[in-house]
Design a protein that fits this description.
The chain is mostly helical. The protein has two domains: 80 residues; 65 residues. Helices cover 83% and strands 0% of the residues. It starts with 6 loop residues before the first helix and ends with a helix.
Length: 145
């Protein structure tokens, strides 16, 4: 495995923890927010935990592999193996197809339950972002091949 620095992952872990903490502080100190700002603390908590978890996991795995070069070499070979890459790409494709259906069902359920409009529109925005990014990459890869 290439010897890359873990400093940037530590920095991103700290940034994620700060965003998470900010969300908790906003949630506890300003309980009377109205409208779309009501979701801000929860968005901060979600994004912060995601950034923190991903980067701290990378830091821990890189530190563990730094002490065991044989395992690092084995993992690097498995990661670059064409069969494993094909399996990962196929699993991503299937999960994308499933995610599109689940998002559609959630949007429909939220609309039928008459949930606040900003919640439904948030789902719609995320759904459209995913679909448009899929179209973009499909077009990009077709031009390359």
């Amino acid at each position: 495995m290439k010897n890359s620095k873990i400093g940037k992952y530590v920095v991103f872990s700290i940034i994620g923890f700060v965003i998470f903490s900010t969300g908790l502080v906003i949630l506890k100190t300003i309980p009377s927010m109205r409208g779309i700002l009501r979701t801000l603390p929860y968005i901060c908590i979600g994004i912060g935990t995601g950034i923190f978890g991903q980067n701290i996991g990378t830091v821990i795995s890189r530190l563990a592999l730094r002490n065991d070069p044989q395992s690092a070499k084995k993992i690097e070979i498995e990661t670059k193996d064409e069969r494993n890459t094909a399996i990962r790409n196929r699993a991503k494709a299937k999960s994308y197809d499933l995610m599109v259906m689940v998002f559609g069902a959630l949007m429909m359920a939220f609309a039928l339950m008459q949930v606040d409009m900003y919640v439904t529109l948030t789902f719609v925005a995320a759904y459209l972002f995913i679909v448009f990014s899929s179209i973009y990459y499909l077009s990009k890869f077709q031009k390359e091949m």
